[in-house]
Design brief:
heterotrimer; A: 518 residues; alpha/beta; Ubiquitin-like (UB roll); Alpha-Beta Plaits; Rossmann fold; 3 domains; six-stranded mixed β-sheet; five-stranded mixed β-sheet; 15 helices; elongated; B: 357 residues; mainly alpha; three-stranded antiparallel β-sheet; two-stranded antiparallel sheet; 11 helices; 6% strand
Chain lengths: 518, 357, 157
């Protein structure tokens, strides 16, 4: 451990720490543009200059390691003057087209100018003209005028994806970020470039000009599109009082979690958010003329519970079948396991998941099953749907999820379903398979509910509700708790579950796998 | 038979005169308040694009009021609710029958008094009818089934009763001076001259009585400085639950009271239809001049004099209504009981002493 | 007693003042009716639909969007007006302009005048001087709310 003083504040840090990281530990913010904790410091933006006692010149905080007794000042007059100077040089060739720049509002250059700059430009010369709209990848657009040559993008492509599509070309005032001839940023992590760019040089064509950053609200969530369980931020538009915005979610950004995804997320997770707003089911659909008029969840659950109770009392629980999927959270699977497998002795439980897809050797896995490991740990044996077994004497079917259509065609599945007396579906989406069921009830997505997921490495991650459930949608855990209460089996046990958190605690008591993972 | 016809014609004429004046007093009120406040006032009502400074406004108001919903609040006493505005209206309108518009006209050897009801107790009749107007207010406040209107009605009754006393007492001095209760005789008395020059009008003989009467009569009209029963701008009054034509009747009653008060002031204190130094055959000036006129011209002079005096007092009352703020309730009661009644007693005693000298 | 008389005098003064107003104003009204022109008028009223008061030079009226020399809107859809608007009555949808110098233009620009409070913040927020409130149009009443949604065509006209 080394003892240092930052702004006369004594601090003990590990040997080999840089001044910037040490200051961060002390809660002091040193402005920086090119430094990113994922990469080695490069020191080309010169924003992080600090004054170190005994040294004649200002030093770079990002690349200077601490020494015993080092006295660093980050707010001295000299430092502030230097920051101003650096900003003036950075802005000398910067076009200042903030009104049309998507980064405005989250641009570090803008923030630092507001905080440390606020000078009038001394340059009378006109600014260099460069490429304003260079398409460098499937979703990326490079504006060379806005670029401040921090080389974060170059380093990302060099160190993280190792694909080396971008580089710094030319020298001096002519130097610019450009793409190597014949190449294009096509790797599965390209979206991260727009996120790490400290200014608006690389923008995302998926987000470009759609809205402004400050209209969006940011909520934490977990990406359910593969079994990795990357941590994400969902940025959504809360809407205007008199005008409807075309969609809720405008973009997904990565959330740092060193144990799962580091700083990054893949393009599948980043650009695949449209499922949250498109093709959703937002109201109860009734396909068979039912005696229940004006359906609501209460009536549906009463209907289910009566059916189930009758079958249970007639000792015909083998006539009950369940189709689950791994988009259900640990808590929901735990409740379903409790109610159907343990209390009702249902054996016909199948899993229908999205089909396997492409994988890469970094984050994206081939399984599109965000909670497969959780289902296994809870005790489900992972049986894929077998139409023959399903059709054999089943009278009551409860299905979850929209994924039937990925595996079966309508003609294939219809004869089997026609034999089943009562069929219910709980899904978030409307697709052609919904017509097979008597009643379809809308459910909330992972982004719209609370709970936990277990990723393929066995890491249990809790997620909180980011968005309001669409329309009449309800989270499945709530449906299950209500159903369990209606069944009147072990009423007192289910009555306590008023939130996923309580269910999770109960899970920890019963299943050792979840015991320590909180 | 012809007598009845004559009375009938007189009633028609008197009512037309009173109602037209009432209608146009609403217009005068709007215009006068506008002019006082440097505005123009309602001038948009037009017939075929002809505006004539808003003279059609009263008709527009009347049409609006006629076509508004005749609304009776639930749980109210419907009969009394309907009756109240008519009571108010009736007791005020009937007083016009005792007011002399002029002396007499003679057609074909027949002498016709320009007065509907020539009774010996004319003054008492007028006072009695005016005080009966309280019932309209009380019934309106009570039958609306609304505690605020009831309180408004009670406030109105209290105010009217308080000022009724001063109103009656202030006239006793007058009756002592002109020993008659017959209004046409009182007017005749006022045709005589004081010291041979000044006409013997009530204002000169009873200045204090005039002031008390004027204040008390203003309070009787329930208009702005004394508008506690109604209080349209903030405190809620007795006709809150009225709308349309029934409310219109209350409003007309208000304006009609202004005219009746002007008539009374004219008749009692300003010589009624008397023009100074005008006798039945023409002017006899105290400095010796003479200007003989025919009968019809004299009648014209008399009627015109009466009308001009009435117009002036109506104008004055509107001016007062647009000048002063409302009294506080305790001030109102103080003024009635502690100022006007003692003063009117002083007036009676003083008049008695002066007359005995 | 003296005080009471003083009060009484003051009360009389009050009616003298109103009466003076009445007679002075009537005098000028009569002069006007007789066709004599005077500098002073009997009333301060402006007969609105026929007579109109001149608007102050810094008044705020209906918005307009400014044009570039080639007739396109000067607006770059930066949405700062949307941000500044306290009544949230502006809606802008941006689109990509082929012109590299412009890049961004408003595909939709709607002002909901039924919500607008005419504070002028949008004008102050605009970095491009693309929106102004100087059209002198202050009579904006409509028979339906939809008619108060002013879109790009109406605003730029």
């Amino acid at each position: 451990m080394v003892k240092i003083f930052i702004d006369e504040k004594p601090l003990e840090v590990e040997e080999g720490t840089t001044v910037l990281n040490a200051a961060e530990q002390a809660g002091i913010d040193i402005p920086h543009l090119c430094y990113h904790s994922a990469f080695l410091p490069e020191g080309n933006c010169r924003m992080c200059l600090v004054e170190i006692e005994g040294l004649p010149k200002l030093e770079l905080a990002c690349s200077t390691q601490v020494r015993e007794g080092m006295k660093i000042s980050t707010k001295s007059e000299k430092v502030i003057e230097a920051r101003k100077g650096v900003l003036e040089f950075l802005l000398a060739e910067h076009p200042l087209d903030c009104p049309i720049c998507d980064k405005a509002g989250e641009c570090k250059l803008q923030d630092y100018y507001e905080e440390y700059g606020l000078f009038e430009s001394q340059f009378e010369e006109s600014k260099e003209k460069r490429e304003k709209r260079l398409k460098i990848g499937k979703n990326l657009i490079l504006d060379q005028e806005r670029c401040i040559l921090c080389t974060r993008c170059v380093r990302f492509l060099r160190d993280v994806t190792r694909t080396h599509e971008l580089g710094v070309f030319n020298r001096g005032i002519s130097s610019e970020i450009h793409i190597y001839e014949g190449l294009s940023v096509e790797n599965n992590y390209s979206g991260n470039l727009a996120e790490i760019c400290p200014v608006g040089a690389i923008t995302d064509s998926d987000f470009r000009f759609k809205t402004r950053k400050w209209f969006l609200k940011k909520e934490e969530s977990i990406c359910p599109l593969c079994s990795r369980g990357c941590n994400i931020y969902i940025e959504y538009h809360p809407g205007f009082p008199r005008f409807s915005v075309p969609k809720r979610v405008y973009r997904v950004k990565s959330r740092e979690n060193q144990e799962v995804n580091g700083f990054w997320i893949c393009d599948l997770g980043r650009y695949g958010y449209s499922y949250i707003d498109e093709g959703r089911l937002n109201q109860i659909v009734e396909n068979v003329n039912h005696p229940l008029s004006e359906l609501n969840l209460e009536k549906i659950l009463l209907f289910i519970s009566e059916k189930l109770k009758r079958l249970y009392h007639m000792k015909k629980t083998s006539h009950i079948a369940l189709i689950l999927n791994t988009w259900l959270s640990n808590e929901e699977l735990f409740l379903i396991n409790k109610i159907f497998r343990i209390d009702l002795n249902v054996e016909k439980i199948f899993f229908v998941d999205p089909p396997e897809g492409e994988k890469d050797d970094f984050l994206l896995t081939s399984e599109r099953t965000p909670n497969k490991r959780g289902a296994e740990e809870i005790g489900f044996d992972f049986k894929p749907l077998d139409l023959e077994t399903l059709g054999n004497g089943t009278q009551f079917l409860m299905a979850f999820g929209p994924h039937l259509s990925h595996h079966f065609s309508l003609t294939e599945i219809k004869p089997v379903f026609d034999k089943i007396e009562t069929k219910l579906l709980f899904t978030s989406f409307s697709n052609e398979m919904n017509a097979l069921f008597d009643i379809v009830f809308p459910t909330a997505l992972i982004a719209e509910k609370e709970g936990s997921l277990t990723n393929l490495e066995g890491k249990v991650q809790k997620f909180s509700q980011a968005l309001m459930p669409l329309g009449e949608s309800q989270p499945e855990w709530k449906i299950m708790v209500d159903l369990a209460k209606k069944l009147e089996v072990n009423f007192n046990f289910y009555r306590q579950f008023s939130s996923p958190e309580i269910i999770f605690q109960e899970m920890g008591k019963e299943i050792t796998f979840f015991e320590k993972r909180k | 038979m012809i007598e009845i016809l004559i009375v009938f014609i007189k009633i028609i004429f008197a009512l037309i005169w009173l109602l037209t004046l009432t209608l146009y007093l609403t217009w005068v009120e709007r215009k006068e308040s506008a002019v006082i406040q440097d505005r123009i006032g309602a001038n948009r009502a037009s017939i075929l694009g002809i505006r004539i400074i808003g003279l059609f406004q009263p008709f527009a108001d009347a049409i609006k009021m006629i076509f508004k919903e005749d609304f009776t609040p639930s749980f109210s006493k419907k009969f009394l609710h309907d009756l109240a505005p008519f009571l108010s209206f009736f007791f005020v309108a009937i007083t016009i029958s005792a007011i002399p518009f002029g002396d007499f006209i003679s057609i074909g050897g027949k002498t016709i008094n320009l007065l509907i009801l020539d009774i010996n107790v004319g003054l008492l009749f007028v006072l009695a009818m005016l005080s009966l107007g309280i019932y309209g207010i009380l019934i309106a406040g009570w039958s609306s089934n609304n505690k605020f209107t009831l309180i408004g009605g009670l406030r109105g009754a209290a105010q009217l009763i308080s000022y009724e006393v001063a109103l009656g007492l202030s006239l006793i001095g007058l009756i002592m001076v002109y020993p008659s209760l017959n209004l046409s005789q009182i007017v005749h008395f006022q045709g005589e001259l004081l010291f041979g020059v000044v006409p013997k009008w009530g204002i000169f003989l009873q200045p204090l009585g005039f002031m008390i009467f004027f204040f008390a009569a203003l309070a009787e009209t329930k208009r702005v400085p004394f508008d506690l029963p109604e209080g349209e701008s903030e405190i809620i009054g007795f006709f809150t639950e009225y709308g349309g034509l029934k409310w219109g009747l209350f409003m007309m009653t208000d304006f009609m009271e202004v005219i009746i008060v002007s008539c009374l002031l004219t008749t009692l204190f300003f010589g009624g239809w008397q023009v100074p130094w005008l006798a039945t055959d023409g002017f006899h000036f105290p400095w010796g001049g003479e200007w003989l006129l025919s009968h019809w011209v004299v009648v014209l002079f008399q009627v015109a004099a009466f009308n001009i005096k009435v117009f002036f007092f109506s104008w004055l009352q509107v001016l007062i209504r647009w000048t002063y703020p409302r009294f506080r309730y305790d001030q109102l009661m103080d003024m009635g009981w502690k100022l006007l009644i003692p003063l009117s007693l002083v007036n009676i005693v003083g008049t008695g002493i002066l007359m005995s000298i | 007693m003296i005080k009471a008389i003083e009060y009484f005098i003051e009360i009389l003064r009050g009616s003298v003042i109103t009466a003076r107003h009445f007679f002075v104003n009537m005098f000028f009204h009569i002069l006007k009716v007789m066709g004599i022109k005077t500098k002073r008028k009997g009333a301060v009223t402006i007969q609105y639909p026929e007579e109109k008061k001149e608007l102050a030079s810094r008044h705020r009226s209906l918005h307009r969007l400014m044009k570039r020399e080639n007739g396109k809107p000067r607006c770059v859809a930066c949405m700062l007006c949307v941000t500044a608007c306290p009544s949230e009555c502006i809606y802008v949808e941006a689109a990509e302009d082929p012109d590299l110098e412009i890049q961004k233009y408003p595909a939709k620009f709607i002002i909901d005048l039924s919500r607008c409070c005419f504070c002028g913040f949008c004008v102050e927020a605009c970095p491009e001087d693309a929106i102004r409130m100087d059209t002198d149009q202050i009579e904006l009443a409509q028979y339906s709310r939809e008619d108060l949604l002013y879109d790009l065509d109406k605003l730029i006209g």
